Records
---
Amino acid sequence: MSFLMTQAVLAGIVNGCIYALTGMGLAAIFKGTRVINAMQGEFSIIAAIATVLLMRGYGLPYWAAISGGIASGAVIGAVVEIMLVRPMNARNAPDDSYLLLTIGLAMTLSACVLYFVGRDSYGLPPIGGDGVIFVSDAILQEHAAWLIGIVLLLSLVIRQFYHKTTLGLSMMAASIDPDGAATSGVDVRMMRTCTFALGGILGAVAGVLVAPIVPVNYHLGLALTLKGFAAAILGGLTNPMGAVIGGLVLGLVESLAVVGVPSGYRDVVAFSALIAIMIFMPHGLLGHAGRKGG
Amino acid sequence: MHRWFVLVAVIAAWAAVPVVADRQLVGLLVFTAIYVIAGLGVGLLLGQCGIVNFAQAAFYGIGAYSTAYCTARLGLPNAAGFVLGIGGSAAIAFLIGWPVLRLTGYFLALATLAFGIIANSMFFEWDLITGGELGVGGIPKLAIGAFVFDTPERFYYLVWIVVFVCMLLVRNLMGSRTGLMMRAMRDSPEAAASLAIDMHWLRTKMFMVGAALGSIGGSLWAHHINFVSVHSFSIERSITLLLIPVIGGLNSLPGIVIGALFVTFVPEFFSRFGDFHQILFGLALVAVVVAAPNGIIGFGAAIIDRWKTSLATTDEAK
Amino acid sequence: MIDLLRLQGIRHSFGGLRVLSDVNLRVESAGITGLIGPNGSGKTTLFNIISGYLVPNGGDVRYEGAVINDETVQARCRRGLVRTFQTPRLFEQMTVLENVMVGVTKLTSSNLLQDVLGLSGGKREIERCRAEAEHICHRFDMVKLLDQRAGKLPAGQRRMVEIARAVAGRPKLLLLDEPSSGLNDNEIESLRSWITSLQNDGLSILLVSHDMELMSVVQEVHVLYFGEIIVSGTMAMIQQHPKVREVYLGV
């Protein structure tokens, strides 16, 4: 493989992992609550910026700041669910209105970021410093390698979580059959809150992992959400594992498509490929009829 | 009798606005009207067909750029811009819609989102036509024959008449055989198929109608502000247009007007708070959604119902 | 008498699971044919194949003598082949009258321009839909329900609306999938008399049901057991048939 191709493939995988993580968060929330979370990207931005502020402003050591950032994702997710989604549940709000809610929240959160920290971009120090790894003759930042590893590991962890742990199984049960789950002693409302918190955590991790490569600002949330949404849909929307595959495919298509094409057309090619994939593979990449909302 | 009185009062109030209100308010109401037209296109698809269209800004842009190119660059009469815009939008809606509208649900929404992003990128890249970041300026004010709509007040009357005509046409559609089939398709695609409704073609036709409405809105907008730039046709714009029918109330024509008023005036009202205003808009949106998930019209209807019930019970108590 | 519907050698499997094997079936013009069988015997799959929602792995579906395997659901409906669903699929947000009007749309036509501009051509067509739908609703004794939202109806009435809607389009062959489930005895009796009266109008019916009351109107019954037709004949015959007794009663 030529140097250019290798570089493109690597970039595609790295980006793909970020999209995968965002898509996983979206899919997890949809799977658990049937809500499309338009603020998934904002979880990432806020967590990354919170981490930066904790480090710079309060002088916390790296790992404490990261923990704080990730916790912020969980907290925001949980708070949104408790204060806003629950009252809407109680009123039997129509399905579309939840999407509208998350869109409104995404606007609010991104505007908050703009207001409180301005238009600047915030970066984090990369894991492994400035170290690089050589893959044939292409260069991969050490942080990027860690990123890929962490995302893949996290995918396996999430899979195990849903299938093997009590909490994960309870969350699945609560979403598939709330009444049945309730009679089995599952606190359905708490499970929904946990689902949002999980989505928040996944979003936060994505933010913290991407900030060292691409410094984040108030505007990036939407772009991230869109890519994550694409990844999740490709993967079948209710399947967090599918989102991983979807994200990687999206990242690779995006990267490879621009080899030889002016970079302004990057989105055009990536999204055209996305449309083509959806038309020719109507059941998502994994081929199950698990596509919801049809 | 009662209804006629309300109708006359509303029309009188509408006609009086440019006379009594300041220019700025009139200008905002022009924007509102334009939003009603574009929002009607989105609302038709969403409320009657159950299709979420994230690409309305693309057709809005095609209308605006068609007008810009025909009038500012080529010096053609205004009608050319409208015709090119509507024709171009309908054609593209057909070309994109035919393959994509076979999808359903979230896949379809994502496909329209993807198309919206593609269109936005194209507007950036084809800067020979669109002027890219710099945009196209010098678009003349709209004129019919010798009469030029060169003040906001004059334009106000024109655009709201266009709104009225568009709403009449949409209302015809909703009450027609096509409307019936659309709603059937929305409520149960399987049953609709079993009754020989050709859903694919129906959706494509509706997509084209929605696109045409978006284009008309875009052309009017170009004439109003005399300048178009690529930043106005982003996904954020499409999302704003989607908010219009949802906030006001799906399937309600007055609801579209309310939604358009919300989207025009709320940001304007909050802009006095400086950078904080975007936060307030987001919060206002959230508040409306949580309090009135069926849109403002639905909320209003519920209140009226409750009021009627309480009147009935007090009557019984007497 | 030409067969209206004829199934020859229909086979179908889902993955590795064989659901239908060599099913042969006829419905005569203006005839009522019944299909019975235990749950899971493949009745709904067969309906899906006949109506076009599923393409069979093998065999032919012949309608009015022609093979229609490749025709879409909509094309079959236009030929006069209409089905109902095991759980009624109504247009929940529309009224009962509107639901039935949708059934009539295939008999009328209007183009987009007429409908948008509100031209008299378009208005005439929807008035025809309305008139025809009202007529059917009268016949089915549903006048009181006309303006009710379909989503708010109880089960028995939902079933009636679905059947009225299917019949409104003047089909030639009606496929009824478990029409009596969810109905009380009075409603089943009404259903039975409607089926008979529809047959008198020349409509052919293929009826799947558990209800023996309803089956009494049927001329020929096929017993479907695990994807195979094991017995065919009149109700009286098959009720005595040893194989049927074995399958149903474990005797």
---
Amino acid sequence: MVARKLTIEPVTRIEGHARVTIHLDDEGKVDQTFFHVDEFRGAEKFSEGRPYWEMPQITQRICGICPVSHHLAAAKACDGVAGVEPPRPAKLLRELMHMGQIIQSHGMHFFHLAAPDLVLGFDADPAKRNVIGIIEANPALALKAVNLRRYGQQIIERLGKKRVHPFFTVPGGVSAPLSSKDRDEIAAELGTMTAIVKEAISLAKGWIGDNQALVDNFASFPSNYMGLVDEEGGLQMYDGEIRVRDSEGELLAQFKAADYLDYVGEHVEPWSFLKFPFYRPMGWAEGASTYRVGPLGRLNVVDKINTPMANEEFELFKQINGGKPVEPSLYYHYARLIETLYAVERTAELLDDSDILSNDIRAYPPLKLTGHGVGVIEAPRGTLYHDYDTDENGLITRVNLIVATGNNNWAMHTSAGLVAKAFVDGNKLTEGMLNRVEAAIRCYDPCLSCSTHAFGQMPLEVTLVAADGAVLDRITR
Amino acid sequence: MRELDRTFCKQANSAVRLLAVYRYYEGLMPRTLVIGYGNLDRADDGVAYYVINSLRRRLGQEPLLEYNTGLEDLGAQTDAIFLTQLVPELIDTLIDYDQVIFVDAHVCEDVPDLHCTPVLPAYVPSAFTHHMPPGMLLALLQALHDREPAGYIVSIHGHDFDFRRGLSPAAEMLVAPATESILQLLRQPGEDRCH
């Protein structure tokens, strides 16, 4: 048998955003696997020459799924450029919007992308193994999922006055206070949303318990981890210092956002447009200096969660590996739901804060700009860096964005490789095998198709290519 | 078309009268949501924004500013909005409409540069992205709310998807014809309206 190649390729209008190529050896076994991102991200260059205060609006259009993350990271970078510290009520309101984003984004991922595998099985008919199948199997659960996402989205809308692409932050604060009516209406649904998230946690834990061997061995590998923490080492999504732990849980570094370039480097591989960030003090060393971000990364770096119900779950999470970092990638789903619970609880805390209805929502920048600002937040998918330089007139001269999906680039590549080796057999190829490879990547909830869109289908194409380049077979679904 | 209608149309030789004709027929139309989507910062990917604003002008509505979606002022017989991406919570909006017309760019070589086709509820698997095609949105609406509005997509062949504002000449040339296609869909309920 000749060596050949499998490609899992969602074809999009711009030559495909990402694909997985699995190279088989002469025996039809997996030799190597690559997770390629073919989309060139040109937003940095596009932003040059624009006034810095436009960045919260410009950068949120990078992504139709998580615009709030870019909006808030950009706002923090703009605070730095302007040399202004937002008043406490403005920070609370920004964080409240962020909690809305976490709730809607995590809710969507769990029910839309993760639950089909968990509820219906990796080998279920792909025509059924989807959110429509979930609706047929458990319509009540599906409606609750939509309700959870709507709730998060409405928090964003109430603050930003728009459902999509809010006009909320300004350098030094936010553009409008929260009304008592909006506060009360958000608060009124907290109990319902808490119950929905707890039901999802129960579902996820039940599935993990029923599939423990699979979970323990599915894309499980050591890595470093990165995430924001508060001054006591508690989970932080909006602000704080960036902490990096190694695969044993030892602290490698904790640093301020402005110093990130001392700690984060970016490696380039010729087969992917997406760079591979790594922990710079170690130099590029695949596996040794690479790290994971997002829900699993965050829960593996924090010491605690500052809300009671989420912390209770966190204590259980920490027991999975005896207090050391949890490595199997499927635990991303559990971690994501723990964070969703945190976001709902944190929303309640923010709404109860005596400053939340304050009109003291903006500090005005001094006339002279600093010309430089770095904004870092924990986006739903992981640590998001916005770094701007401006000239003396506030026009952008340089932008560096390191997005969450980029931070997890090596982890997704590694996960796909491990799962392909474990499950794919080129001699008896099944749809379920390839779905497992996709599912390994889905753990990280990558955001790849956000800056452009496609009319028509986005088929999954699997192409079998012989070593001499001849196409042996092609499967599209 | 009734004789009275024909006479009215013949007399409608000014922009104001054309608008009056539209208003007259508006009462006969299914309530329609026109959803343009794409990225204004990626050249032809944002072509739907230009189509939506062209349509809004023809309907006597204010064009959307670039940061507005139109979601905040729904309520007309025909609403026209522009989004970066289709998202699941749109189903809560779609409940109120009899017909949905999607507007987007396309890169298909085997369909006309200006393409109009019905959209049926259909789940399309997405390997590892959040991409939500129109048929998927309609499938969610049907599954969750048992509603099945008529669906169409009007799309324009895109040629340039670089990071810049504005359209390629070829895409720009099709904005007005695309607007006409949508108006045609609005005027002829119940027929095979994609021509």
